[in-house]
Amino acid sequence: MPFGVMFHHFHSRKIKKFGQGSIDKNQFENIIKFLKKNFTILTPEEWILKVEKKKLKKKDICLTFDDALLSQYDVALKILNKYNLKAFWFIYSSVFNGEIDNFEIHRKFRSIYYKNFDEFFFNFSNHTDKNFILKKIKKYKIFFKFMKKFYPIYSDKDIEFRFLRDHVLTQIQYNNILNKMMTEKKTNKKKLSKNLWLKNSHLKKLSNAGHMIGMHAYNHPYKLSELNYVKQLDELKKNFIHLKKVLNKEPISISYPNGSFNKDTLKIINKLKIKCGFLSNMKSYKKLYPKEYVLRRLDHSIVMKEFIK
Ligand SMILES: [Zn+2]
């Protein structure tokens, strides 16, 4: 089955390692070599053409980068150029307007200021009433099972943390806890946001070089599917308009932030004439949704774990 390979964080001697499964130039090159040997890596244009004609072959894959991270441009692009490969870059727009995305800042914070995830989680737990989890124990069990199946890289504590963050605390409660923790470590959001995200000039360069810039909503909402139609429309339209303005052409692809979407999302992207939509896992929806809007993606960490020894 065809799929996109999903990449997020990269590090180098200059760029500190943060984000689960962050990789360096050499690891990226090894993945590329493996993929080239075993699959056909299509350019975004070839991929979309084949999606439209329903001609994707079993071994067809494409490369995708989410979240507009500068480290992708600084580290991964050199390797893409070396092998003359083009990729999808899925961009959320708020950070191009000087807004700060808490999600990415928090990820960077917890990786840079703590020795490991456990240390962060210990500190986080001290600020959180974990008894809340017990009140939602049934939901937690279902969540735990789902995460283990589709995100095997996450440890038990990772999953517990994500449940607390996404299903127990409100966003305001969560942000307040993280703000407190940052202050305790004598840092803040502004310091952490330095050199984190791409700029419009990068998007133009990528697009002119044959890469495809696609949508990823405006604010990178945790769960697009939990927003009503009007709010989703706002998220997607603002993202669409930003990319259209910078690139002088309308985006035709999307990856759903955190893989979250519902029927309203598909209605909206259909109106925007989006030609392909990517999930963030390998879930198969059979005939529930149009095939071109539930394209599967495999996280690079799974490629490394399962195939590259
Ligand atoms: Zn994302």
Please supply descriptive tags for the structure shown above.
single chain; TIM Barrel; two-stranded parallel ribbon; 10% strand; 2 domains; binds zinc ion; globular; alpha/beta; 8 strands; 309 residues
Give the helices and strands, then pairings.
Layout: E1 3-7, H1 25-38, E2 40-41, H2 44-52, E3 60-66, H3 70-82, E4 88-91, H4 102-112, H5 117-126, H6 131-135, H7 137-150, H8 156-168, H9 171-184, H10 189-192, H11 200-208, E5 212-215, H12 229-247, E6 253-255, H13 263-271, E7 276-278, E8 297-299, H14 300-307
Parallel strand pairs: 1-3, 1-8, 2-3, 3-4, 4-5, 6-7
This protein binds zinc ion.
Describe what this molecule looks like in 3D.
This protein is an alpha/beta fold and 309 residues long. It folds into two domains: 3-99 and 196-307, Glycoside hydrolase/deacetylase (TIM Barrel), CATH 3.20.20.370; 114-186, no CATH class. Helix content is 49%, strand content 10%. The chain has 14 helices and eight strands. It has helices at 25-38, 44-52, 70-82, 102-112, 117-126, 131-135, 137-150, 156-168, 171-184, 189-192, 200-208, 229-247, 263-271, 300-307, and strands at residues 3-7, 40-41, 60-66, 88-91, 212-215, 253-255, 276-278, 297-299. The strands form two sheets. Strands 1, 2, 3, 4, 5 and 8 form a six-stranded parallel β-sheet that branches. A two-stranded parallel ribbon has the order 6-7. Helix 3 (70-82) links the parallel strand 3 and strand 4 (88-91). Zinc ion (ZN) binds next to loops.
